[in-house]
Amino acid sequence: MDAAAAALMVTQFAESIAWFVIASGLLQNIFHVYQLLLAGRALRRDRGIAETRQLWRRYAEAAPPISLLVPAYNEELTIVESLRSLLSLQYPSFEVVVVNDGSKDGTLKALVEAFDLDAVDRDYEAVAPHKPIRAIYVAPKQPRLVVVDKENGGKADALNAALNLSRASIVCSMDADSLLEPDALLRVVRPFVDHPQETIAVGGTVRVANGCEIRFGRVSRVGVPRNFLALVQTIEYLRAFLMARLAWSELKSLLIISGAFGLFRRDAVLAVGGYSLGTVGEDMELVVKLHKHFRRLGEPYRVAFLPEPVCWTEAPETLGVLGRQRARWHRGALETFQRHADMLFKPGYGRVGSLGFGYILLVDVLGPFVELAGYVLIPAFWLLGVLNVQYLYAFLAISFAFGVVISVGALALEEQELRRFPSAGSLGVLLLAAIAENFGYRQINNFWRVRGFWQFVTKQHSWGAMTRRGFTRGG
Q1: Rounded CA gap, 461 and 332, in Å?
Q2: What pTM was estimated for this model as a whole?
Q3: Whole-number Å distance between alpha carbons of 199 and 450
């Protein structure tokens, strides 16, 4: 083979790589724009946020009892504040089941001291598997509160213990570091009242509490974080919930309801064996199991997302903690995809198998490596003179311009429909963050996804340390 033929082969190879990366990125971004438009249409259709008193008049009598399931592991800093928030929710009938999952800090001690807990015996049926329970506590002054102390088994294991001990027909999965808005349960339960036979799961919005003022377990003032990582996560959460999950709900292909805030029909969760153990993506795994179960039965069902019920959570503010979280999230998505790969493109699973699992294949399985190839190979080929500069421009446009448009679009949806941020200055800061995240942060995020893929391949199951600062309290 002469030098000219070899050079031609190298050029053709480089162009093939470039076309694949550009086409993959273009397909993904076109779908994101479609999601943005779909979410905007849904918000305009449902425009008009009812006041709490209107919701109470309409839903209070028909609202089913709810058990809030709160797994806690090393949550000493935030657990009491979170529980005070939960116990003051505006909802007619609910209980809070907190599971101390073998914490190594003072989580249990903080609970006992704050709520004057007493140990009791409580009968329950162990339908979902979990580690042994050491003790069960109740609070004489807070009859809605039940605290379970058990051996460490992980979040899914703790949720199963809470599920077994719960007594309501609807269960709400929570994170111990989360704060629900006072009327969040009343808002998120609506599909269970309006469509009681079909609705099996409903998710609400999770938002970043960093930068907000917390008073008596509630967000008293909405603000923007001063920490850059928390700031760009605010944009990410808006994009993930207000745009993506609302659009997936409209497409009837929603595959994940956040473990920080989601309602489920208890009998449906028990029918699929509760939360799966041995996975870090228990929230996504449960929703996919429910889809598979009801699709196989051929029964009508609904898995929905509502944008207005809001849960606030503390976002990581250091690269180390955030990186471990994002690698774990990606590992969880891959674990779920592997366990249920038989659903991919199978007609019997409808849009869930085609759109939902097809998206996971493109974005979570192939996406990190395609994006990495784009960042490394396309500039390298251009610098070596193998690729025309137009390929580089096309890749940069897809990688950055689309990203900015989608992030700014999600922010525009928030301002147009929900308007939670109090000032134009806050919106200006978020707008700058929506632009800045595409230049460095997004690339680091992709590295974390690659690391999550490696952890999945090497079967690493550790959650990693998740250090928390605690909520900022008002004076």
Answers
A1: 10
A2: 0.92
A3: 36
Residues belonging to the chain:
475
For residues 117, 119, 123, 124, the Cα torsion angle rounded to the nearest 10 degrees is: 60
What is the rounded CA–CA span in Å between residue 55 and residue 46?
Answer: 15
Q: Give the residue from 7, 4, 8, 18 showing the smallest Cα distance to 381.
A: 18
Q: What is d(CA 364, CA 327) in angstroms, rounded to the nearest whole number?
A: 11
Containing H/E element for 37? helix 3-45
CA distance 471 to 362: 37
Q: How far apart are the first and last CA of the chain?
A: 78
Which pair of structure tokens corresponds to residue 355?
């759109």
Q: What is the DSSP string of 375-393?
A: HHHHHHHHHTT-S-HHHHH
Could you list the pLDDT tens digit for every one of the 475 residues in the chain?
577 777 778 777 777 887 888 888 888 888 999 999 999 999 888 765 567 778 788 888 889 999 999 999 998 887 887 888 789 899 999 999 999 999 999 999 999 999 999 999 988 999 999 999 999 999 999 999 999 999 999 999 999 999 999 999 999 998 887 889 999 999 999 999 999 999 999 999 999 999 999 887 788 889 999 999 999 999 999 999 989 999 999 999 999 999 999 999 999 999 999 999 988 899 999 999 999 999 999 999 999 999 988 899 989 999 999 999 999 999 999 999 999 999 999 999 999 999 999 999 999 999 999 888 888 877 887 887 777 778 777 777 777 888 888 998 888 888 776 777 877 788 899 999 999 998 889 999 999 999 999 999 998 766 555 566 665 554 3
State the pairing for strand pair 133-139/142-150: antiparallel
Q: How far apart are CA 151 and CA 129, in angstroms?
A: 13
* Cβ proximity of 304 and 254 under 8 Å: yes
CB atoms within 10 A of CB 22: 19
The first and second tokens of residue 351, run together, are 């849009």
Place of tokens 């809070």: 96
* Tokens representing residue 21 in the block: 């990366």
Going by their DSSP bridges, the two strands 213-215 and 218-221 should be labelled as antiparallel
Q: Is 306 exposed, middle or buried (0-12, 13-18, 19+ CB in 10 A)?
A: buried
Task: Tell me the C-alpha to C-alpha distance, in Å, between residue 450 and each of 15, 346, 366.
Answer: 24, 28, 10
Q: CA 249, 253, 255 angle in degrees (round to 5)? A: 95
Q: Give the residue from 167, 191, 247 showing the smallest Cα distance to 62.
A: 191
Euclidean distance between CA atoms 64 and 421, whole angstroms: 32
Give the orientation angle of helix 319-339 with respect to helix 441-457, to 10 degrees.
50
